[in-house]
Amino acid sequence: MTLAEFFSCSLLAFGPPLVMFAFTIANDPIRIIIMIAAAFGWLVSFLISSLIWYAVVPLRSYLAFGMVFAIIIQEGFRYGMYLLLRGTEAGLKVISENQEVGNNKLEMAYVSGLGFGTMSGAFALVNVLADSLGPGSLGLHGGTEYFFVTSAAMTLCMTLLNTFWSVIFFSGLDNKNYLKILWVVGSHFFVSGLSLLNKKELYIATILPSYVILIITAVIAFRCAGGTKQGLLQSFTGRT
């Protein structure tokens, strides 16, 4: 049972991002490099926020304190990725075999966002997946059998949100539409704050609002990327 739990939660959390990577990034070396750079950027932001949390001894027991600094620093690194990619667009086009790299301004936002989200998801779930392999049984000592699947579902949500947030964030900076940036930062704080309810095992109160935010964010990102209802229908029907 523990092995089935491990694989089901792994596929739930990382299956969609893996498919996105395989179909949209894996065939382009430049995109792979950008995704890795973004993942490394998230890793550095996590390290910095951990150092701040460790340095402020009186507040170590307050999880919300660490969360606030982590979000601020992550969004700072998202802005840093924006500056880096916008400053190297011409150079990437020269060295890339794909001459269309950079033609779509939000293409690199999507790639870097997926890198951000994948690294975030890996850190959030790896230890949980390791525990799911046992030894032990779910539900002992007052625990709930929904912990692992909830963790996997929230990991998927945050991975996809980071992808969409980067698209909206880059679009907001390009067009000087700061309401988009406000949505990214505000929804990041909101969804991360909801995760604090997991300590009380209020999983429904965490998952449902988080996925509502995910759907809204996906729609905004779709519109930012120039998507239309007609184009979406054509992508499903295969018509041009």
Overview of the structural elements:
The protein is globular. It has helices at 2-24, 29-55, 63-87, 89-95, 107-132, 147-175, 178-194, 203-224, 229-237. Helices cover 77% and strands 0% of the residues. With 240 residues, the protein is mainly α.
Detail the topology: elements first, then pairings.
Blueprint: H1 2-24, H2 29-55, H3 63-87, H4 89-95, H5 107-132, H6 147-175, H7 178-194, H8 203-224, H9 229-237
Helix pairs in contact: 1-5, 1-6, 2-3, 2-5, 3-5, 3-7, 5-6, 6-7, 6-8, 7-8
Please report the distance between the alpha carbons of the first and last residues.
46 Å
Shape: globular
> What's the rounded overall pLDDT mean?
84
- What is the tally of beta strands? 0
Strand content: under 5%
The main pleated sheet reads as: none
Q: What string, H for helix and E for strand, traces the elements in order? A: HHHHHHHHH
Radius of gyration: 19 Å
User: Which structural class best describes the helix and strand composition?
Assistant: mainly alpha
Which regions contain 5 or more consecutive residues with pLDDT less than 50?
none
Helical residue percent band: over 70%
Tally the helices: 9
